[in-house]
Amino acid sequence: MTDRPSPEIGDELEALMQFLYLAPVGLVQTALDGTICMINPVSAQLLMPLSRDGNLTNLFAALEGVAPALRHLCADFLPSQGMVCDGMYIPLSADRGSKSTSKVLSLSVVKLDDTRLMAVLSDVTVQVRRERELKHTDAWLNAILTNITDYAMFRLDGLGRIAVWNESIGRMMGYAPEALVGQPYSIFSPPEATTPEHLLDQLREADENGWSLNEGFRLRADGSQFWGSAMISPLPDQGPSPGDDGEREGLAPAYCLIIRDISDKRDANERQRKATYCDYLTGLANRRAFFEAAELELERRKLSTRPTAMILFDADHFKAVNDRFGHPTGDAVLCHLAAALSATFREVDVVARVGGEEFAILLPSTDLAGAAAVANRLRTLVETTAVMVDGEPIRYTVSAGVAAMDDSLTGLDGLMRRADQALYAAKARGRNRVDCWTPDCPTYKDHLSGGISAA
Description:
The chain is an alpha+beta fold. It has 13 helices and 17 strands. The strands form four sheets. The chain has a five-stranded antiparallel sheet with strand order 2-1-5-4-3. Helix content is 36%, strand content 26%.
């Protein structure tokens, strides 16, 4: 009687063979010399381009051109069973007409017993390509992080403490790496500029909005400061950070902090602001800045009953200064008057040069009498102080017109027109005086003769 497998065993063998043929990876069973005993369709598809005669009879022979060491590797494997090689990458290339194709196979070989080998093949071309791209990307990013000079980058834990940084921290900020481990990133801000609560608020803002950005002074290791931006963004959750004590209170597990030195940008903005709003000669606000600030102040006044006054100053006989002594001396006179104005008035007052030799001051919370008193003090100061030009004292005087805001005026134009009329009156009545606006002030400028003399 011939021994036959039981129906249950037969079903298992049939299921096993079905799995081998339908498996999504290549499976090849061979003898120890590489002779193929069983091969599934995936293996045949992967190996057929390597076959010279179109017949796959020996695994070692098929792979001889791309994996010549495989035969010796299997022959030298001494144990009766075990993993001979695991995940050996085998590059393949083929020319198909005008196209050249390449792929990478992964090969693992297991010694089943003293007579059989099982090879597992898979196409890992896409995986290898992705790994190569990631490696190139990592190298590219590492080069950026290492060589970039004006960005200091950090990895912060969930409480904003420094964990990792790039090399720019030394070049840009002068810190030794060992001095930063575990420090809160507020170490880079002046003590008066940040608090632990402010730090946590920035982290929460980054969690809510995806990023948090603020600009301000940053500290270098030597105590010097620069104007820098600090951007914080949450990183994907990669598990607990080292030293995580569970006190994050809903914060992300880690953050990326980028500090950039933007001193040049701030300086450029400041130069642009000065070009737009500052008088090039005296450094005071210019006409545009005066009108914008004055309009804003008058809008605020509408919400209160506080008084507001305006003074217009004009250097007397200024044309005579330029004609007799030259424009550089005229510029010196204007700068002298601007310095006197800056020293006389308060920070809340809006002081500006609004014309050639004309200066305007808006005084919040000051009535007509108070403004006139301040204007007279400055007039006296100018009259008694000489401007030294090339060792020669130059004396000059100023006239001033004062007006106060009242309910009959609707805006800045009316107030300035009244101050201008008062200034005309002061000049018409002999100059070197302060006049306050009254309804009978003249509306013309009286061009009196005269001049400014050297003392």
